[in-house]
Amino acid sequence: MKSNTGTINYMSRLSKDFPAGLVVFLVALPLCLGISLASGAPLFAGIVTGIVGGLVVSWLSGSQLSVSGPAAGLTVIVLNGIETLQTYEAFLLAVVLAGVLQLVLGFLKAGVIGLYFPSSVIRGMLAAIGLILILKQIPHFMGADDDFFGDMNFLQPDGRTTFSELGHAFSAINLGALLVGIISLTILLAWDTAFLKRFKFFKLVPGALIVVLVSVGLNFLFINSFPELAIASSHLVSLPVIGSVQELGNELRLPDFSAFANPSLYVVAFTIAIIASLETLLSVEAVDKLDPHKRRTPTNRELKAQGMGNIIAGMLGGLPMTAVIVRSSANIAAGGETKVSAFIHGVFLLLSVLFLAGFLNQVPLSALAAVLLMVGFKLTKPSLYKGQLKLGAEQFIPFIVTIIAILFTDLLMGILIGLAVGVFFILKANYKSPYFYHKEEQKDKEIIRIQLSEHVSFLNKASIVLTLDHLPQNSHVIIDGDKTEFIDYDVLEAIQEFKKTAHERNIKVEIRNIADVQVLDMH
């Protein structure tokens, strides 16, 4: 397999990318609609962004497997943005400006930020999303949740939490939806078995497609023969039905360019650009870890691709977009190989708007919940937890803290908490290794040699200062920088200050191969 900077034979991968694109479409459709609903935007806005993410961003991006579209993590920002700017058309202008800012960030090479997130935090994010998918889809699986399908936050719009919703679900089960969910999950589990994979049909046709067809058939059977099991419309896909080109045009919105005079516009645009960029960088970093071929995504190119995507989506009336880990992980789980699968998902979204709304509006959400339950399990397998535990506390603790924080807050807040814990362990590791400490007795005095390591940064300052503060009185100290390539100014300053005051403890200080620095007087 060539790297993503080389030429990839997309046609040879089509047998895997086509079914993967179909699976991603089936996952993305209710998410696009649900996120629109939660954002207080027109229902069609999420579909527009999903189409742009599939048809445009997939080719501009350097990632082979990430899928872009409206993100659940931006719903609160969108909701507040529309309220602040008072009209949806003014908000669309903010989306366009956010896209321009992302383009600028790409050209400024700001994509490197994503590389500073520890692997343990990224793995924790994936595991947490897997758990959230399982916890959030169980109520839809049972036909007991009327909240939007793309909800990912701990606190829900109806006042319940992720866990209290589970309790409610068990007391409000829709038997028809549950039967469809169980049959759908059984089909998906069987489809993944090695026995069935021996047959070409089961390799080429995605289980999710069969699940959709069977679930529609079952609900049709319930409506006509067992009305008490019929699934209510609130638990079915709800796509706007468009009968003509004119109706399609009526669904599209254009930005209100007169909003340029509103100072709040720039605050909203900046907020969208920063949050969407950060979520995108974290998502592509996570996707690269899931990629079986371990290809690396060029992050600056990704920011530019997302910027162009948001400019186009904003001009057509769509929500802001990011690279989305739920859709991307569904793509990988379904066997996607190249960016063709993301493009195909965009084609299906477009076709669904133009020709398939009537059929898709008969698909039970419990069937799609079964697909996401499978995706969730693959992201949070027990083997992942065992592997992190074997790596030691400095890897496992940030991992598990990130999971808990995301479960009880939201994606970005959870990642920031996990990052803070990860940085603590990085500081702790640096605290241990800035020098070699050797003590020897000579006649009536102690000689202590402190041999500095090759690179001594400001992160090492605390360790060195504490060591110098605890040196015994009447000792002879040699601080040697012979093997050191770089010493941070903060550390040099600390050494100079120690040298000035050491005589008060009758400590003789000998400094070798370390430059003097001017210590600034703060008085």
From TrEMBL:
Keywords: Membrane, Transmembrane, Transmembrane helix. Residues 437-523 form the STAS domain. PROSITE patterns: STAS. The chain crosses the membrane at residues 20-37, 43-60, 65-82, 88-108, 115-135, 169-189, 201-223, 265-287, 308-330, 342-375, 396-427. It comes from the Bacteria. It is a multi-pass membrane protein. Pfam families: Sulfate_transp. InterPro entries: SLC26A/SulP_dom (IPR011547), SLC26A/SulP_fam (IPR001902), STAS_dom (IPR002645), STAS_dom_sf (IPR036513). It is found in: Membrane. This is SulP family inorganic anion transporter.
